[in-house]
């Protein structure tokens, strides 16, 4: 699921994007389908090619969101670039019990107006979002990404305190930098984003999926077998390697 972060971030780009090293996972297929429904041109021929220039639908519908709650990651890029976005909430409007409230709080601090109507989170802004100093109540990978993506096109500087530090955060930041974003501090608990007026296109090779790699490693350990995982990145697998060594 975390691998799909760059897919949603690609909504910010005004030129075509090529994402390399993408595994064949159901969440990847769902993300591609969602982007297509929003109006992006999405193709896969080894790499995944995303052209979001013609996005003209700003709503992530329930039939897709129910299969992958990570669809909330579309909200930040949509409101940042197009001034509006809607994402369905599985189970309706019971926000308080869901981690999505951190996404909402972050977008509100950037100047977005948020409404909860008929099971949808609806975000809008007049003009551009505004940079802000955001101290997160708790560490959240998803909310960190939402704020970081939205802040890339905000006017001014955004500082995220108590930010998540996972490898996927670093990878998403590096992807955005490839497109022209100005981000520093990724991998620490303090990320600084200098807003720019637009993001272009580019080619980026995402991290190998550590959940996929970890699954194979654990399977080999349980079966007392032997496995070679090529194209893995060991420095992102400390927890798994420590348990299976």
Automatic annotation (TrEMBL):
One of its GO terms (molecular function) is UDP-N-acetylglucosamine 1-carboxyvinyltransferase activity. It catalyses: phosphoenolpyruvate + UDP-N-acetyl-alpha-D-glucosamine = UDP-N-acetyl-3-O-(1-carboxyvinyl)-alpha-D-glucosamine + phosphate. Pathway: Cell wall biogenesis; peptidoglycan biosynthesis. The gene is murA_1. Pfam families: EPSP_synthase (PF00275). Keywords: Cell cycle, Cell division, Cell shape, Cell wall biogenesis/degradation, Cytoplasm, Peptidoglycan synthesis, Pyruvate, Transferase. GO terms for cellular component: cytoplasm. Its EC number is 2.5.1.7. Its main location: cytoplasm. It comes from the Bacteria. Belongs to the EPSP synthase family. MurA subfamily. It comes from Escherichia coli. One of its GO terms (biological process) is cell wall organization. Residues 8-240 form the Enolpyruvate transferase domain. This is UDP-N-acetylglucosamine 1-carboxyvinyltransferase.
């Amino acid at each position: 699921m975390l691998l799909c972060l760059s897919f949603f971030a690609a909504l910010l780009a005004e030129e075509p994007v090529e994402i390399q090293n993408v595994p064949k996972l159901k969440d990847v297929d769902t993300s591609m389908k969602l982007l297509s429904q929003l109006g992006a041109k999405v193709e896969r021929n080894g790499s995944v090619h995303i052209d979001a220039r013609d996005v003209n639908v700003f709503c992530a519908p329930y039939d897709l969101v129910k299969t992958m709650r990570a669809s909330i990651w579309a909200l930040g890029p949509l409101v940042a670039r197009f001034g509006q976005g809607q994402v369905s909430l599985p189970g309706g409007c019971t926000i308080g019990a869901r981690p999505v409230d951190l996404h909402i709080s972050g977008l509100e601090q950037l100047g977005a107006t948020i409404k909860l109507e008929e099971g949808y989170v609806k975000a809008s802004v007049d003009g551009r979002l505004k940079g802000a100093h955001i101290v997160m109540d708790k560490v959240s990978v998803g909310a960190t990404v939402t704020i970081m993506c939205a802040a890339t096109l905000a006017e001014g500087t955004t500082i995220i305190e108590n930010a998540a530090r996972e490898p996927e955060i670093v990878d998403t930041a590096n992807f955005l930098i490839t497109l022209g974003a100005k981000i520093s501090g990724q991998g620490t608990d303090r990320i600084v984003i200098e807003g720019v007026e637009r993001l272009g296109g580019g080619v980026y090779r995402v991290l190998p999926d550590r959940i996929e790699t970890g699954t194979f490693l654990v399977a080999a350990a349980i079966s007392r077998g032997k496995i070679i995982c090529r194209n893995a990145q060991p420095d992102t697998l400390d927890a798994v390697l420590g348990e299976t060594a």
